Amino acid sequence: MGKRDIKKLLNDQGPRVLNNNRRARHDYEIVEKFEAGVALRGCEVKSLRDGGGSVAEAYIQPRGSELWIVGWYIPPYTHGSAWVEASDRDRKLLLNRRELNDLIGSVSQKGFTIVPLKVYLTERGLVKMEIGLARGKTRVDRRQDIKERTVKRELEREYKVR
């Protein structure tokens, strides 16, 4: 797939989502969202474009004045060279200084964490990650969310019948 094919695909459908972390929205209340670049090496981008990778078990950890994503699995590219990166190595997130300071300061407060929400390709073909500043949900919060969804679904069914 050439550069023009990728641009055409992206222009028709908008950003192409490579990985989605649905579990994060279930377990956490997302307070604020940020877009971060990811420092990738070798054939990791090609592997992601082929549909590989999983952010379900990944988490984001501050180290000094930087943010790192830990546990993000990207399988080795099958058509790559003999030199292959480790599949689950830690990768650096790229944000501007103000966003980094805000996130690191918020994480130091009790109850906040940073979770990866989705990984996608931009129109220029760059890999970006949507991360969220989140607060853990309690069991009661999850039950209430389920209740709201069922009520909404029942109302939609009722309006459809009429």
Quick structural summary:
It contains five helices and seven strands, in the order αβαβαβββαββα. Helix content is 36%, strand content 31%. It has a seven-stranded antiparallel sheet with strand order 1-6-7-2-5-4-3.
Q: Name the structural class.
A: alpha+beta
Mean pLDDT: 84
- Contiguous uncertain segments of 5+ residues: none
Q: State the separation between the terminal residues, measured CA to CA.
A: 48 Å
The helical percent reads 25-40%
Question: Please, could you describe this protein's structure?
Answer:
With 162 residues, the protein is α+β, with helices and mostly antiparallel strands. Helices cover 36% and strands 31% of the residues. It contains five helices and seven strands; from the N terminus they run αβαβαβββαββα. The chain has helices at 3-13, 22-27, 44-49, 97-108, 139-161, and strands at 16-20, 28-38, 59-63, 66-70, 91-94, 112-121, 127-136. A seven-stranded antiparallel beta sheet has the order 1-6-7-2-5-4-3. The N and C termini lie far apart (48 Å).
Key terms:
162 residues, alpha+beta, 36% helix, 31% strand
